[in-house]
Amino acid sequence: MIYRILLPLFLLFPLHDAFSAVYQCEVDGKTHFTQIPCDTNDVHKGVYKPKSAILTYSPDEARKPVRVKIKKPVNTMDAGDAIVIKQKRCEGGTYTVLMKNISKYSTYSTTVDVTFNYFKSGREKKEWDKHKQTIVLNPREQREFVLKGREAPSSFEIECVANRTVKFVRSTMVR
């Protein structure tokens, strides 16, 4: 964007110099350079000797489009495949999972939603507690994720039902 603003401004500077003539005048045997034409009738001002412009400008060059290639971050792999669950366990109302981002270049955000269900054997499962947490995993980072639910009565068994969503955040690889 900045190139589109600065390029036309830089192109105008040579125009100013290209259209301003330089005159060489001789007065009393000394050579003077001026932007104002020498007066051929006045002997004190010297002889008119116009010089050609130093810089040239072609209007065809200004019409060419300026293309600036903007590099964009690249998602190097599918978000669901990038985050690997190494271990998970549900013990006494605590859900623990060890996750690793296997991507070399991309950072991902992982949201884990855990529902803690309690039940007695042979009976219907009931939702006891629910927790949600989000973490960001940088490339090649591994982290343990712990969610604690409310304590259930000791006579009940607890089951953890976990869902995770993974979203692409950013990448160090650009194209």
Number of E strands: 9
Q: Report the portion of residues in β strands.
A: 35-45%
Side by side, the strands of the main sheet go 2-1-3
Order of helices and strands: HEEEHHEEEEEE
Measured on Cα atoms, how large is the radius of gyration? 38 Å
Q: Spans of 5+ residues with little confidence (pLDDT < 50)?
A: none
Q: Work out the helicity level.
A: 10-25%
Broad structural category:
alpha+beta
- Number of helices in the DSSP assignment: 3
CATH architectural grouping of the largest domain: Sandwich
CATH fold naming of the largest domain: Immunoglobulin-like
Mean pLDDT: 76
State the distance separating the first and last CA atoms. Answer: 18 Å
Q: Briefly, what CATH class of the largest domain?
A: Mainly Beta
Structure description:
There is one protein chain. This protein is α+β, with helices and mostly antiparallel strands. The protein has 2 domains: 2-63, no CATH class; 79-171, Sandwich (Immunoglobulin-like). It has helices at 2-19, 59-63, 79-82, and strands spanning 22-27, 30-34, 50-51, 83-91, 94-101, 106-119, 126-137, 142-148, 157-171. The chain has a 3-stranded antiparallel β-sheet with strand order 2-1-3, with no helix packed on it. The longest helix has 18 residues, at 2-19.
List strands and helices in order, with pairings.
Elements: H1 2-19, E1 22-27, E2 30-34, E3 50-51, H2 59-63, H3 79-82, E4 83-91, E5 94-101, E6 106-119, E7 126-137, E8 142-148, E9 157-171
Antiparallel strand pairs: 1-2, 1-3, 4-5, 5-8, 6-7, 6-9
Please sum up the structure shown.
With 175 residues, the protein is of the alpha+beta class. It contains three helices and nine strands. It folds into two domains: 2-63, no CATH class; 79-171, Immunoglobulin-like (Sandwich).
